[in-house]
Amino acid sequence: MTTKSDTRTVTRVTIREVAAAASVNASTVSRVLNPATRHLIGDEVVRRVLAAAKALGYRQNRLAAALRGGQSRVIGVCLPDIENPVFPPIVCGITEALAAEGYGVLIANIVGKIKEQERQVEQMLERRVDGLVLATAARQDPLVRRCILDGVPLVLVNRGEDGGQVPEVVNDDFLSMRLAVAHLVGLGHTRIAHLAGPQRLATGLSRLQGFQIASQQHGVAGSVVVEAAEFTREAGRAACERLLDAHRDVTAIVAANDLIALGCYEVFAARRIACPGAISVIGHNDMPLLDMLNPPLTTLRIQHREMGRQAARLLLGRIATPSAAPLRITLAPELVIRSSTAAPRAVSRKTAGVGAA
Amino acid sequence: MTTKSDTRTVTRVTIREVAAAASVNASTVSRVLNPATRHLIGDEVVRRVLAAAKALGYRQNRLAAALRGGQSRVIGVCLPDIENPVFPPIVCGITEALAAEGYGVLIANIVGKIKEQERQVEQMLERRVDGLVLATAARQDPLVRRCILDGVPLVLVNRGEDGGQVPEVVNDDFLSMRLAVAHLVGLGHTRIAHLAGPQRLATGLSRLQGFQIASQQHGVAGSVVVEAAEFTREAGRAACERLLDAHRDVTAIVAANDLIALGCYEVFAARRIACPGAISVIGHNDMPLLDMLNPPLTTLRIQHREMGRQAARLLLGRIATPSAAPLRITLAPELVIRSSTAAPRAVSRKTAGVGAA
Asked: Which ipTM value was assigned to this complex?
């Protein structure tokens, strides 16, 4: 059995060998292989060198190039939870846009506390990433502060930060809530509740503010807010229980994300509450399989992939021009109407004592 | 406004500065910072150098260390589709196990054809990854062949390869099928169909073979196989339609994955076929939200995360000992019984003409 690592070392082709095959100096080969200096060499020689490199199977060493040129052409991406279905399509958009520009993506799934986050980001910086895309930001984020102080090119995606000093690509949560409330008001609802996300995250805050503004605009007097501790099914269930215990007259719920809405479904099932018959619910994000639930969930579809693509482009721009003002890009969501929203039971029937009918 | 990149360059601390602060030579600092040579230096000096490095905010340059030491401590991970819910938890397991060992993860989401796959893997090799985890393998995979020839340390995850020359970590698909068929036979089914996955992938083939063996063992005479072109809902729907058109007596379906089972749900809804009343169905993988479908889907839960963790460990072992024989690790699945499987309608009732009762 051959030793793979031996094979690998033995077959590694050097610049000298390429130079010999193309009958030029090694320095000429270096200049040809570097896009920044290729124009210094005549076309005929460039062609000959590239042909020799290809024929010999020469592989550029990008680490050496990164050390010389000061750019690794690698970007670090930090995620709070790759298993939350919001993030894979964002990663997909980021890698797609960066691969097209010849950039690699170092990924970190940062599940731990701030210390662990710092450790992983520190490792990325030791690997000389050219910049970072953070999907992990809280509204007050020590890691973001630190990257700013360190002068690391940085873009936030999906979740923004309060400081406003960092470029970000996020969903237009105000528009989301305007679309959600308008849909419910159009159906005839007047007692509408918002199951808010955690207020330490920008998405939690902006959806809550958006809900309050939209409720005011539509003159919805009976709007109620209950905060879920996390963007999860479990937290959604707990928040929904508190809501229904305290506010029996609510006929519609705008959940801050789909998982919170799924927590509502669990409560409805446990309490035998008909949806949308007795109560309507709207999610947020449009994660996979919502169309197959019972009932299929009405939700706001966010542009996950485009968010990732835009974040990648914004970061490349930032690396090229670090002094540019930090842009904030918002992408428009789309209301996807399925079967979890319907007109409320007529009040007249209720007051007429039809009861369980 | 300050220019970030300037700030960054200015604040970068050198080994010389650390040496001056610790009153030692620069070469001593280098030896202390390299785990392989640290033992050459006395404990007191090691402590002084590390304290000075920390106080000054010295950041190691891992690119330079990688060039010197020949190891980048970065692993490349190639995925066929990060949006397929099988892969995020696998990535999670890989990054978790590698981060614990100080390794970074370069990720590529390889959606294109073989040329694009080769281009992305080539870039990873130019970045001098120490090894690759491929979740993209087909049974006959040119990319795997090429990595073997290139002597790149390599581990396959989730999908194996026919050659058997590469270590792999996969689900025990034979056990999956044994559990599925035993469950259905236990309920009284005798006309059982398999909606197979694409046979160019190892998961497609091994689940089919597992189904055939399990059917034989249980003496199921009336087993039928129809192949889905892809592991997707759409392909599952098409395959289910073909199956039901050709074999009206089938009472249970073992789908090669959850998405194919969801395709069956779509056909059942369109044709008003009751599940599990008229037909039972079992999925494979246990992707998120199956418990909230109507009916909740019975499935085989695979150990996604553990698969990722094992693949990472196997690769690190491979890098340390390239000549070791290629292991194949299989992980045991677990049958998760929900509500999409039930006893078939009694044949006696059927023949007695009770009809729709």
From this structure: 0.83
CATH number of B15-60: 1.10.260
Q: Which CATH architecture has domain A74-171+305-332?
A: 3-Layer(aba) Sandwich (3.40)
DSSP letter (8 states) at residue B293 = B
Distance of alpha carbon A308 from alpha carbon A135, whole angstroms: 10
* Cross-strand partners of B76: B106, B132
CA distances from A296 to A275, A287, B337 (A): 10, 12, 23
User: Residue A136: which of A166, A172, A174 has the closest Cα?
Assistant: A166
Question: What is the distance between the alpha carbons of residues B147 and B132, in angstroms, rounded to a whole number?
Answer: 9
- Reported pTM: 0.85
**d(Cα A64, Cα B74) in Å, to the nearest integer?**
15
Q: Does B72 touch chain A (CB under 8 A)?
A: yes
Q: What distance in Å separates the CA atoms of residue B77 and residue A81, rounded to the nearest whole number?
A: 17
Q: What is the mean pLDDT of chain A?
A: 89
Give the pLDDT of residue A6: 39
Establish, for the pair of chains A and B, how many residue pairs have beta carbons separated by less than 8 Å: 169
Chain B segment 286-305 residues within 8 A of A by beta carbon are: 288-289, 292-294
Tell me the pLDDT tens digit for each residue of A201-220.
Answer: 999 999 999 999 999 999 99
The residue of B1, B5, B103 whose CB has the most chain A CBs within 10 angstroms, and thus the best one to mutate to test that interface, is B5
Q: Which fold has domain A173-302?
A: Rossmann fold (3.40.50)
CATH 1.10.260 domain residues, chain B: 15-60
Q: Where in chain A is the domain with CATH 3.40.50.2300?
A: 74-171+305-332, 173-302
